[in-house]
Amino acid sequence: MRKGQYQFVTGFLFIPVALYLVFVIWPYIQTIGYSLTDWKGQSQTFSFVGLDNYVALFQDDVFLGAVWHNILFLVFIPVITILLALFFAFMVNAGGRSRAGGVAGVSGSKFYKVVYFFPQVLSLAILAVLFGAVYRSDTGGMLNGLLLKLGLIDAAEPIEWLNEPDFVLWALMAVVVWHGVGFYLVLFSAAMQSIPRDIYEAALIDGAGRAQSFFRITLPLLWDSVQTAWVYLGIVAMDMFVLVSTMTSGDYGGGPDHHSETMSTVMMRNFLYFGKSGYACAMGVVMLLLTLIVSVVTLRATRRERLEF
Amino acid sequence: MTAPIQKSDASPAAGPGEGSVPRQRAARTAHPPAPGPAREGVVLNVFSHGFLAVWALLIVLPLLWLVLSSFKTDSQIAGSAFGWPSNWSLDVFGRAWNKGIGDYFVNTVIVLVFSVPLTMLFGSMAAYVLARYQFWGNRVIYYFFVAGAMFPVFLALVPLFFMVKMLGMLNSYQGLILVYVAYSMPFTVFFMHSFFRTLPTAVFEAAILDGASHTRAFFQVMLPMAKPGLLSVGIFNTLGQWNQFVLPTVLMQPQSGDDPERYVLTQGLIQLQQQQGYETDLPVLFAGVTIAMIPMLVVYLSFQRQVQAGLTSATLK
Questions:
Q1: Pick from A9, A102, A123: CB nearest B243
Q2: B149 at the A interface (CB within 8 A)?
Q3: What residues form the membrane-spanning segments (chain B) (predicted)?
Q4: Is A37 within a domain?
C-alpha cells in the first residue's frame, strides 16, 4: 500500500474508532475494574475491595430473585414467541387453498405481514403506556373490561394484573410476545420463501402431507433462523428493563414486593437511586457473563448439520 | 369448487410470495383439482385465515382503543373500558403537545437530525476502509467494532455516565448525539461492511484513473452506489435511536434545579404517564402516545418493505 493510502485509511478510521473507544469499549472495560471497588459514585475516592461485591451479590435475595425471573423469561419468551411465529409463518406461506395438491400461501399474506410487524416499530415506552392502560386495575382497563363483558369477573373485584404476584410476570411476557411475534413471522417467512419449491413437490409426489412436509422439510431448513431468533429473544429476556421499570410499581419497577424484579432493574436502582456504583458494576458483569453463557449454550444446543440448498 | 372462487384465489397478494403463482396457475389449467385434497385445502384455508385474523385484531384493537380513549373524558376512561367516546375534539392533542410532548418531540428530532447522519457517515467511512483496503490490523478493528453488538448496554452504563459527566455533556444534546453514534457503530459497520464488499471495483478504478483522490472516490462514487444499503441502515438507526430509552434515562436527567429538561420522547411519555397518575388527565397521556405513534406509523407504512428487509437481514447475517 502506498503512503497516501495509509493517510486516507487512518483519516477515515480515526473519528469512528475514537468515538467507539471512548463511549463503548472503555466503559465496558472500566465496569470490570469498578466492580472490584466500593465506589459510591459521588466522589472519586474508592478503595479496592476484591470480590466483595460479587460475594454480596450472591447473598442479595432481591438480586437472586431477579436472576430467577430472568431465567423464567429466558425459557418462556423464546418458546412462546417462536412457536407462534412459526405457526403464523406456516399459515401465511402454506395455509392457502391448495390446487392440484400444491402448497399455497393465504391471500392477503402481505397485509398480515404489514400489520403483524407494526408493534416492532413502536417504542417500548409506547407499549408501556398502552399496556398500562390495557392492564388497568379497575374496570376501565381493556382486559378487565373484556372479562367483565364475558361475565368472568365481578365488577366489584377486577383483577390487578400488574399488582398480583402470580400474574405480573405473565402480563409482562404477554407484552413481549405481542411485540415480537410479527418480527419473527417476517424472519421465518423470508427463510421459508428461500426454500426451493421443487423440494416440496418432490415430497408431495412421494405422498407427504402438510404436517409431514412441515416437520421434515420446512423446520429443518429453517433451523438457522430459529437459532438466530432464539439468541435474540434470549438477549431480550435478559434485559426487560423498559417494560418492568415503567409498568410495575417501585423505583425503577420490580413490584409488587420484588415479584417482577429483573437484573437490569436491580442494577439501575442500585446505581441511580442508592448510588452504589461499584455494586451496580458487579451486576453488569454478571449480566454480561449470563448473556454470553446463554448465547453459547443456545448456539451449541441447537446446533444441527447445516443443510445446503 | 366453483370457478369464481378459484379465480379470486388465483391472485394472491403481491410480494415475496408471488414466486409460486405462475406455476400453480399453470397446474390448475392443466388438471382440474381433485375433490378430496381441494376440500382439505378449503378447510385449512378457513382455519388459517381465522387464526391470522384473530392475531391481526389482537394487534390492531388495543392500538385503536388507545387512540379512541384520547377522545374520552377522564371519568369515562375509569368507568368502562368500551364506552364510546363523547368528547370529539382535537383540543386534547394541543393540550398534550403543550404539556411537554411538543418539547420532547423537538428534543428527539434535534438529536436525531445530527445523530442519524453522523452515524451513517462515520459508520460508512469505517466500514468502507475495512471492507476495501488491506492494511495491518484490519481484521482486529473489524471484530472490535462488531463485538460491541454482543454485549448488553447495561455493562457500560455506570462508567458511561461518569465519562459523559467528565466531558461536561450530561443532559446535553451533543452528549446524547455522540453516545448514539458510538452505540450504533457495531450494526452500521457490520451491515455496510458486507454491502461495500459487494460493490464492483471497476467503477472505483476508473475514478482513480481519472485522477480522483481516495476520499473523492468514496464520496462521489462509492457512497452513491451504496444508497440501497444506506437506506436500510438509515431506517434501522432512525427507528433504534428514536425508540431508545435506557441511554437517555441515564444521560438526560436535569443535573441541577435550573437545568432545562431535555427529555426525549420515550422518556417524556413515561414522565407524562407518572404525572397523569396524580393529575388524572389520562386523555392527554393517550393523545401524547398517539402523537408519538404517528411518525413511526408514517415511516413504517412508507418504507415497510425496506423496514422489514433491513431488520430481517440485520438479524440473519
A1: A123
A2: no
A3: 46-68, 104-129, 141-164, 176-196, 282-303
A4: no
Which of B17, B56, B218 is opposite residue A105, by nearest beta carbon? B17
User: Does residue A262 lie in a domain region?
Assistant: yes
ipTM of the complex: 0.88
Place of cell 466531558: B167
Chain A residues close to B150, C-beta within 8 Å: 291-292, 295
Distance between CA atoms of A7 and B133, rounded to whole angstroms? 12
Residue spans of the domains in chain B: they are 43-80, 90-315
Closest chain B residue by Cα to residue A133:
B66
B285 contacts on A by Cβ (under 8 Å):
129
Residue at grid coordinates 410499581? A249
Q: Which residue of A37, A39, A86, A121 to mutate against B (max B Cβ within 10 Å)?
A: A121
Does any domain span residue A157? yes
Q: Within a 13 Å sphere around the CA of A171, how many CA atoms are in the beta-carbon half?
A: 30
Residue contact A1–B133, C-beta within 8 A: yes
Cis peptide before A256 (omega within 30 of 0): yes
Q: Which residues contact A138 (CB under 8 A, 6 or more apart)?
A: A144, A158, B78
Interchain contact B2–A (C-beta under 8 A): no
What's the domain range around A61? 52-301
Number of domains in chain A: 1
| CA B191 – CA B172 distance, rounded (Å) | 29
Q: What is the pLDDT of residues B245-279, one digit of tens each?
A: 999 999 998 887 777 889 999 999 998 888 876 77
Over residues A266-294, the pLDDT tens digits come to: 999 999 888 888 999 999 999 999 988 88
Q: What does the pLDDT look like over B83-122, one tens digit per residue? A: 788 778 888 899 889 888 999 999 999 999 999 999 999 9
Q: Would you say residue A21 lies in a domain? A: no
Secondary-structure class of domain B90-315 per CATH: mainly alpha
Domain at A227, CATH number: 1.10.3720.10
B307·A123 Cβ contact <8 A: no
Residues of B in contact with A264 (CB under 8 A): 154
Among the partner-chain residues A99, A191, A292, the one whose CB lies closest to the CB of B24 is A99
CA distance A243 to B194: 34
Of B62, B159, B289, the CB nearest to A134: B62
What is the pTM (predicted TM-score) of this model? 0.86
Each as own residue / partner, the long-range contacts of residues A222-226 (CB below 8 Å, 24 or more positions apart, any chain) are A222/A86, A222/A188, A222/A191, A222/A192, A222/A195, A223/A302, A223/A304, A223/A307, A224/A191, A224/A306, A224/B316, A225/A187, A225/A188, A225/A190, A225/A191, A225/B316, A226/A82, A226/A86, A226/A188, A226/A302
